[in-house]
Amino acid sequence: xxxxxxxxxxxxxxxxxxxxxxxxxxxxxxxxxxxxxxxxxxxxxxxxxxxxxxxxxxxxxxxxxxxxxxxxxxxxxxxxxxxxxxxxxxxxxxxxxxxxxxxxxxxxxxxxxxxxxxxxxxxxxxxxxxxxxxxxxxxxxxxxxxxxxxxxxxxxxxxxxxxxxxxxxxxxxxxxxxxxxxxxxxxxxxxxxxxxxxxxxxxxxxxxxxxxxxxxxxxxxxxxxxxxxxxxxxxxxxxxxxxxxxxxxxxxxxxxxxxxxxxxxxxxxxxxxxxxxxxxxxxxxxxxxxxxxxxxxxxxxxxx
Length: 304
Hints:
Layout: E1 3-5, H1 10-17, E2 22-24, H2 25-28, E3 36-41, H3 47-58, E4 65-70, H4 82-88, E5 89-90, H5 92-95, E6 100-105, H6 121-134, E7 135-141, H7 143-153, E8 158-172, E9 186-196, H8 199-203, E10 208-214, E11 218-224, E12 229-232, H9 242-252, H10 278-294
Parallel strand pairs: 1-2, 1-4, 3-4, 3-6, 4-5, 6-7, 7-12
Antiparallel strand pairs: 8-9, 8-10, 10-11, 11-12
Keywords: Acyltransferase, Amino-acid biosynthesis, Cytoplasm, Methionine biosynthesis, Transferase
Catalytic activity: L-homoserine + acetyl-CoA = O-acetyl-L-homoserine + CoA
Enzyme class: transferase
């Protein structure tokens, strides 16, 4: 089954060209089933790119998924055309009286700021609080995961001496967890961040369960005890060239940045990168949709 998106969203043509199953809203309304309603709070500056990343991994499911996009109102969105924001995005004020099967909170390139210094922190806190009563399951990514663990459980983030940047191997800690169903014992995922949450602090918190970690990249995947909050500290949704684009962007700015680890063959940025994480990325999102959203959400939204 497809992911259901607006007919004119730019990502639609891109995904169709990749043979990804997407369905325009005009066709979807003719099908007599209830799709899963997924809200994406997109905090990334390049919103159109992030939309494509997430729609790609959400599409690999037998479930019909209806996606809506959300942006903060307390922040200037300079890197996305205004007409795109007007056409496809809502603010929290416009959705706060509604219910959703799932919510995705993306990362944001602001991890060196204290949470309280972020311009939209109060709005994000309001959204995360609202999610506890209006969303069946929330999936937090990278900085969004750090923000979620801090808000819901008081888990602090710490600045790293060196950016975690590249593709790293991870271990499955609880193979019986439905979110990891079908995973290999070891798998790869991209990371791109300057801060971390620490494994001992997650492990000692009774409300959190650590599902996967990496020797090099640290804590990767954790869930709340009730499974309604999912926290992923990396970027499994990244496509083949995303880390490379970040690398060359920083190089061209004259920033001191190392070549992404385990990304380019022979560690040579002139070589095309090889994707080693795609299958597990799709599996992670499809498991979330199936076991934590579809199997848990009420047929009539609002009965959470």
